[in-house]
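Retro notes (design track)

What went well: tokenization of the new backbones is finally stable.
What didn't: we kept losing track of which sequence belonged to which structure.
Fix going forward: every design gets posted as structure first, then sequence, in one message. First example under the new rule, 474 residues:
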């Protein structure tokens, strides 16, 4: 007798998706939450394809969720993960001519950038099959041969329910380790064999997410009402079908050091400075005729909960274990970056100190689901939930020597955002001392020119603020 997908016992090697994972399953169908890691290499894959396959196979052995499938019951709209011992990631190969077609029309955009965007808009998780056994892999891998040089791009495309940013970062680091030292690499990676880890809701410390029915109702009403008052970037085209595009923000190591010095001096993390720069740049573009007109903006800060779960999880536990805090801020124009950054970061940490990232998890999941079901609840049916999202902790990557060892020249990683999402989602990394931000946005709701201008303004605000900190210290 088959077991119902929404029952507690699904399969000897499976479990039901948690509430947060379930929301991602629904969001990915609409185009938000397709996580992509794209790696540019100068090593010919034909020469090292066996090593690559071996490394991916070891990753699947180390992380059961990478050899899992999402099973969907369309009639009940439920999802579950089922892990199999024999599932192997198949690598799709795209030759020079196929890659050249994908790269057509890329005006002053690098091939890595264009392939990243292409993969962000490949959705293997859409469909309306009525079969009870509907199932798809949670990860896909592809290689693209670049037409103009002996270089290629390796891409992993993962479902957000199985991959948050910490997972993507660990996947890259573990892959480089396995590729660099092959048989010895596995010893350097924390093992996580057996069943996939439980959902975040099942690992929350007792009482931390508890909230009375009255408090939940008040908070839900507050979130709903406040969302109607938030200011958005100007929408260029709110009716045409959407896809995800990205703009890259790069700051050299010297200027990055000054910005990080400013953050340290102010007692804040980089997310505070990025959020403040985003709001200053957005307000400047929104209110060019009157920079002193007050506007209210929403910022979502995503925080990794692994360390506070019971039992605590390491960065090597793959899955989605982030939660979100939504703060609103009123901008009138003329704000100084460090003052605004301090204010915004303090607001975030205050919410976090009261465990709002845990107690509000169910509320935000519910509202996200309602917005997906009824886009008309959002401005111009845009599905924009706030102006921007940032991560509390910045990824720091000093693995240049290891990357060179396996021929990795560059990489980009982020998730799609043309369904329900902010107007701009920032995935930040300090790589070899320089700040590298992948800024994701929905197109044509926002245009590339519009977002380039916004990101360029953010860069100017950050660099100027960093110089001001240095000048003040000297």
């Amino acid at each position: 007798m088959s077991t119902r997908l929404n029952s507690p016992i699904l399969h000897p090697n499976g479990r039901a998706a948690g509430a947060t994972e379930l929301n991602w399953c629904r969001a990915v169908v609409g185009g938000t939450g397709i996580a992509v890691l794209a790696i540019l290499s100068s090593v010919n894959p034909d020469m090292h394809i066996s090593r690559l396959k071996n490394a991916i196979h070891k990753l699947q052995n180390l992380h059961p969720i990478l050899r899992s499938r999402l099973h969907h019951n369309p009639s009940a709209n439920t999802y579950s993960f089922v892990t199999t011992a024999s599932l192997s990631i198949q690598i799709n190969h795209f030759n020079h001519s196929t890659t050249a077609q994908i790269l057509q029309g890329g005006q002053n955009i690098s091939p890595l950038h264009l392939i990243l965007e292409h993969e962000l808009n490949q959705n293997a998780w859409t469909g309306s099959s009525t079969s009870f056994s509907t199932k798809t892999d949670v990860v896909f891998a592809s290689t693209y041969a670049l037409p103009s040089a002996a270089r290629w791009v390796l891409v992993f495309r993962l479902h957000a329910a199985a991959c948050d940013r910490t997972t993507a970062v660990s996947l890259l680091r573990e892959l480089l380790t396995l590729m660099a030292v092959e048989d010895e690499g596995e010893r350097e990676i924390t093992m996580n064999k057996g069943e996939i880890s439980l959902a975040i809701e099942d690992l929350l410390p007792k009482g931390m997410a508890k909230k009375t029915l009255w408090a939940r109702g008040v908070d839900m009403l507050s979130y709903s009402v406040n969302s109607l008052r938030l200011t958005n970037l100007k929408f260029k085209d709110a009716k045409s079908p959407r896809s995800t595009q990205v703009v890259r923000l790069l700051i050299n190591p010297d200027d990055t050091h000054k910005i990080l010095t400013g953050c340290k001096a102010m007692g804040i993390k980089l997310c505070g400075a990025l959020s403040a720069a985003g709001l200053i740049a957005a307000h400047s573009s929104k209110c060019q005729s009157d920079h002193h007109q007050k506007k209210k903006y929403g910022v979502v800060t995503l925080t990794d909960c692994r360390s506070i779960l019971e039992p605590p999880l390491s960065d090597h536990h793959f899955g989605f274990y982030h939660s979100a805090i939504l703060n609103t801020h009123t901008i009138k124009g003329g704000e100084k970056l460090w003052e605004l950054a301090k204010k915004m970061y303090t607001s975030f940490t205050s919410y976090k100190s009261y465990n709002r990232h845990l107690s509000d998890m169910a509320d935000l999941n519910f509202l996200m689901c309602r917005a997906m079901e009824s886009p008309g609840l959002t401005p111009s049916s845009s599905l924009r939930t706030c102006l921007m999202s940032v991560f509390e902790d910045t990824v720091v990557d000093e693995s240049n020597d290891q990357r060179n060892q396996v021929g990795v020249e560059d990489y980009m990683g982020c998730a799609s955002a043309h369904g329900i999402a902010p107007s701009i989602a920032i995935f930040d990394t300090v790589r070899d001392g320089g700040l590298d931000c992948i800024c994701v946005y929905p197109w044509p709701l926002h245009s590339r020119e519009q977002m380039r201008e916004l990101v360029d303004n953010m860069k100017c605000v950050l660099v100027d603020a960093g110089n001001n900190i240095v000048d003040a210290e000297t």
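Added context from the reviewer: The first strand starts at residue 14 and ends at 16.
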